[in-house]
Amino acid sequence: MKRLYILITVCAGLLVSSCNDDFMERYPLDQITDENFWQTEQDLELYCNELYAVYIRGFSYEWGDGTISPYGYNEAAIPYGDVITDNAAPNSYSKVAANEYTSHTTEGSGSGGWSWGDMRKLNYFLDNYQRGDVAPEVRNVYLGEVLFFKAWDYFKKVKTFGDVPWYTHVLETDSEELYAPRSPREEVMDSVMKVLDEAIANLPEKGSQKPGRISKDVALHLKSRIGLFEGTYRKYHTELGLDGARFLEASIEASEKLMNAGYALYTTGDINEDYHNLFSQYSYGNNPEIILWKEYSADENLGVAFSRYYAQNLRHRHGATRALVDTYLCTDGQPIALSPLFEGKDSIQQEMLNRDPRLRQTICNFGEYALAEGVMGADNAPLPNIPGLSGNKCPTGYRVAKWFFNEPDDWGRLTRGMQAAPIFRYAEILLNYAEAKYELGQISQDVIDQTVNQIRARVDMPPLNIGAIPADPMMDSDYATYCDYVPEPVLREIRRERRVELAFENFRWDDLMRWKAGRFLEKPVEGIKFVQEQFPGVVVGADVFLSGEGYILPYYEVLPNGRKWNDRQYLFPIPVEDLVLNPNLEQNPGWGSN
Fold first, then answer.
1. To the nearest whole number, what is the mean pLDDT of the chain?
2. Is 327 helix (H, G, I), strand (E, B) or coil?
3. What is d(CA 421, CA 59) in angstroms, rounded to the nearest whole number?
4. What is the DSSP string of 400-458?
């Protein structure tokens, strides 16, 4: 998509109110009851503009300092979502990851993600968009946009809660549906795919859409993602008793269409810079890898303070984990447990030698990705501010380099920052395709060459040969310990590639959930090997605490027994207030009244 630059010029009198939702969703609709509305294409376009602002948020807006409920991470969800997973550790540990989230953590009815105000806006459009004398071929483009958003919204709700009510129209205070039980997951996901297919049918072809609006390819990307998620969730969550094959087939079909649509991985041939630079741009207008992105503008006051606060490590004050670092292969294609090229873990400098180039483009080696002198946070390079040092903390010592935008001018713009936000990128499609093909028993060397090996080629990593896959005793042991199953080597490597390529893009939580691998969160959270000479003023046992191997343990004091997983965490609880208001709702398994 050439650009996603949202111009919200709708006058306040034509917008649906965005006040807080309550159980009855009683915010006023009379702001769009003017008899003259819905009559022109402009009316439909203006209404949809607000929906773009809701659903395609990128790094959010202005200060970008809100949080996403119920997950608890910053509203710039793509770069920050991994802080609740085994990829990252925030300075203040995640209550979601530590199984300390409860149904009382929410703030009343309509909270904790159980919110229906945006869905009401979508259904309000669907109830009214045909009122005017707008040509069907024109109005149906906006229908496609709204159906795309509806499918995306419901997909997020199913991931969070499982069964959810399916609403086809705007509900009033006396609507019986307000007191109906939840619709079964199977019915909801069938409806999601039906709605998404209708969106695909109505959206324009890539390049023919109006500037700043979504195309058919964007909806195909979402279909690829939803199909893989639901298909694998059903396979590994056998307690559901649902067949996921047709969802995997849908993912493959959508992926193949995009693989034949002219997209390509971004590369200039610089294996040590291209991957990092992909996430540090002002514009993706000519980037062959980006299918959907959000553009920001200082001139239009439609910017966001992302680049400044991410570069300075203020938001979440997080660091990557050793579990993620150990996943990266050596440059010979062998895991660190076996490769003769691996230099050991006696220091971060040592363990980054001879590794997949994406490691040093995702996580800072000491002295790299430094901020300009005198800029707040500049003391986080060349060494990270581990506990015991002043400044914005990097609790593991593995400071994240991905998304670092070395543009001091942009940091100075604050809420008018212009770093562009990639939303959907082609590399995900390749990985979706490879995994779905494996899960349907259709994997082959040709499939791997089209997908995993294309991604590896960008950084000149050896191709994966499915006839000679190296063993990885460390990763297999982790699966046996934390997952209760050990995947076949080819699936293990597809999953490894996904974790490495998509790190800090908010995929890891969903991947763990659909693979029924939540217990990976129990793996001890460790950071860098602590080298006293590098941090002479830091006191072991007072400022930092170390494992037996000398790795930093960021949660040694606050979580002395580590994080403990409970299978109820595969779904979040419905707020207790909503259970009281609608006795026909049932709480998700394991949550009770907690």
1. 92
2. coil
3. 6
4. B-TT----HHHHHTGGG----EEEEEHHHHHHHHHHHHHHTT---HHHHHHTHHHHHHH
In whole angstroms, give the CA distance from residue 101 to residue 98. 8
Q: Are 21 and 116 in contact (CB under 8 A)?
A: yes
State pLDDT tens for residues 232-283. 999 999 999 999 999 999 999 999 999 999 999 999 999 999 999 999 999 9
Q: Which helix (H) or strand (E) holds 127?
A: helix 117-128
DSSP 194-230: HHHHHHHHHSPPTTTSPTTS--HHHHHHHHHHHHHHH
Q: How far apart are CA 210 and CA 42, in angstroms?
A: 12
Does residue 290 lie in a domain region? no
Collapsing DSSP to helix, strand or coil, 460 comes out as coil
> Could you give the CA distance from residue 554 to residue 397 in angstroms, rounded to a whole number?
9
Q: Which one, of 87, 461, 56, 407, lies nearest residue 274 by Cα?
A: 461
- E runs forming strands in 205-324: 290-294, 318-320
Q: CA angle, 488 as apex, 240 and 498 as ends, to 5°?
A: 80
If one counts the domains in the chain, the total is 1
Q: Express each pLDDT in 197-221 by its tens digit.
A: 999 999 999 999 999 999 999 999 9
Query: What angle separates helix 136-161 from helix 41-55, to the nearest 10 degrees?
Result: 20
pTM of the predicted model as reported, rounded to 2 decimal places? 0.94
Q: Coil, strand, or helix at residue 540?
A: strand
Q: How far apart are CA 99 and CA 521, in angstroms?
A: 10
Tell me how far apart the alpha carbons of residues 560 and 212 are, in angstroms, rounded to a whole number: 50
Q: 177 lies in a domain?
A: no
Phi-psi region of 110 (alpha: psi -120 to 50; beta: other; left: phi over 0): left
- Answer yes or no: is 266 within a domain: no
For residue 279, give both structure tokens.
């996430």
Of 584, 283, 245, which Cα lies nearest the Cα of 442? Answer: 245
**Is 508 domain-assigned?**
yes
- φ, ψ dihedrals at 157, nearest 5°: -70, -40
Are the CB atoms for 247 and 231 separated by under 8 Å?
yes
Report helix, strand or coil for 276. helix
What gap in Å lies between CA 355 and CA 345, rounded to an integer?
A: 12
Structure tokens at 566: 């409970």
367 neighbors 336 (Cβ within 8 angstroms)? no
Residue with structure tokens 């530590």?
98
Q: Which domain holds residue 472?
A: 424-517
